[in-house]
Design a protein that fits this description.
The chain has two helices and no strands. It is an all-alpha fold.
Length: about 70
C-alpha cells in the first residue's frame, strides 16, 4: 500500500481539479481561472478551505441577488 501512496498524492489534486474544470466547462459554460491565474486560484482554494474549517464560509446568495443583480 505504501508503494502506491506517491501515486495517490500526485493524482488526487488532478482528480479534484479535473472535476472542477469539467463542471466549469459543461455546467457553467466558462473557462476556469486556474489557467489564467494559477497562483491566485491556489491561494483562493486555501482561503476558502480556511473559511470552511473555521465555520465562516458563507452560503450562496438568494436567487434574486446572484451575479450582483438587484430588483
Amino acid at each position: 500500500v505504501e508503494s502506491r501512496s506517491w501515486f495517490v498524492k500526485l493524482f488526487a489534486p488532478l482528480l479534484g481539479y479535473g472535476c472542477a474544470w469539467f463542471g466549469h466547462v459543461v455546467f457553467e459554460g466558462n473557462r476556469p481561472e486556474t489557467f489564467g491565474h494559477p497562483f491566485w486560484s491556489l491561494y483562493s482554494d486555501f482561503h476558502m478551505l480556511a473559511l470552511f474549517l473555521a465555520g465562516r464560509l458563507p452560503g450562496e446568495p438568494p436567487p434574486e441577488r446572484q451575479n450582483g443583480e438587484t430588483r
